[in-house]
Design brief:
The chain contains twelve helices and twelve strands. The chain is an alpha/beta fold. β9 and β10 form a beta hairpin. The structure holds NADPH dihydro-nicotinamide-adenine-dinucleotide phosphate and L-homoserine.
Length: about 325
């Protein structure tokens, strides 16, 4: 039986999460995709860090080995930063390989261009994992909210910040000690500045803006304020008043213009994001027909992210199958 050959770019928290998920869900993948999935290549920066990997031939530092491999159909991109991730994703799409990425920094900068390149090359780019961790927000918007006009999005989009604020309140811990914990748990970015200064949430909000409205607001006009100034005394004081402080991203249409901001907000129990705790993320959407709905779930970590990426794989391959069937039916008609 033919296998589905895939490549992993990056073998850190997310890359290892995908690796283990493919191992543990091989039977399910077989049922859904109709063939086994083989991780043919894994591209890393430093091979010596990965000497415990059993199949040594999988590992490489040379992306060209993926690009020139005729049997690799899908590339999972889970490395850090804009480059070389963007160049790798672009080249993979141009050579007819589907790409599934978790890299929000890269995708906020170049998502639009990659979507166009994918279309031109008759392949797909999956980016569910870039926004909201394991929450299927991208596919929900794409497949289930096609007629609703989305007027406003209010969201907790960074697991690390939400974890820090929750732990500081519940366990009366300091900012620095909880940040170290979030790093050890694999929630925080390699450089956590992006998490605590709301840069990561900003990227996710820009990806949502592109996805919902087809464009982003000018980055210069988006207010972005992090959580590093918030003290545990402030949090305790708010707790006494039954209020909480959360890092919240807002995206809305105001007189036809997109307005966006990410900032700490003080909210009370009536707010839909009040109860979102720990590493969870949540996205509240105001749709023109449905009204207000909130999706919530784990916003960071190896397996929530792997879940989003594996579901992208299934969507891409099953929709390709449906397309092929339709083409055959048309020819036979
Ligand atoms: P890690 O730092 O744990 O792993 C990064 C991996 O990328 C490492 O294996 C590293 O190689 C590899 N890498 C870095 N630079 C290069 C390069 N130039 N060429 C080849 N490989 C390279 O990061 P994460 O796994 O946490 O995150 C990966 C991506 O997923 C990031 O873009 C992140 O923003 C995103 N993401 C992370 C989530 C999380 O919860 N951690 C959730 C959702 C998205 P080596 O091992 O040799 O150093
Ligand atoms: N560092 C990110 C977070 C990972 O904490 O939300 C998920 O995108």
């Amino acid at each position: 039986m033919k296998k589905l050959n895939i490549a992993l770019l990056g073998f850190g928290t997310v890359g290892k999460g995908i690796f283990k998920t493919i191992e543990t869900h091989q039977k399910h993948l077989m049922q859904v995709l109709g063939k086994p999935v083989d991780i043919t290549k894994i591209v890393v920066k430093n091979i010596d860090k990965h000497s415990d990997l059993k199949r040594k031939r999988q590992l490489t530092t040379n992306f060209q080995e993926v690009l020139s491999h005729p049997d690799i159909n899908v590339v999972f991109e889970a490395i850090v930063g804009v480059e070389p991730a963007f160049s790798y994703a672009k080249a993979a799409l141009q050579s007819g390989k589907h790409v599934i990425t978790a890299n929000k920094e890269m995708f906020a900068h170049h998502g639009k261009e990659l979507k166009t390149i994918a279309k031109e090359n008759n392949v797909k780019i999956g980016f569910e994992a870039t926004t909201g961790g394991g929450i299927p927000i991208i596919q929900t918007i794409e497949q289930l909210l096609q007629v609703n006009q989305i007027n406003k999005v209010t969201a907790i989009l960074n697991g690390t910040s939400n974890y820090i604020l929750s732990e500081m309140r519940e366990k009366k811990l300091t900012f620095t000690s909880v940040l170290a914990e979030a790093q050890a748990l694999g929630y925080a970015e390699a450089d956590p500045t992006n998490d605590i200064e709301a840069i990561d949430a900003f990227y996710k909000l820009m990806i949502l803006s592109d996805h919902i409205y087809g464009k982003q607001p000018h980055w210069h006009f988006v207010k972005r304020q992090g959580i590093q100034q918030i003290t545990k005394e402030q949090i305790s004081e708010l707790q006494k008043q039954h209020r909480r402080i959360k890092s919240i991203g807002t995206l809305e249409l105001v007189n036809g213009q997109i307005e966006a901001r990410v900032e700490p907000m003080i909210i009370d129990e009536r707010h839909p994001l009040f109860a979102i705790e720990g590493v969870d993320n949540a996205i509240t959407i105001e749709g023109s027909i449905v009204g207000e709905l909130t999706l919530l779930g784990p916003g960071a970590g190896a397996f929530p992210t792997a879940s989003a990426m594996i579901e992208d794989l299934s969507t891409i391959l099953t929709s390709q199958q449906t397309q092929l069937t339709k083409q055959v039916e048309k020819v036979l008609d």
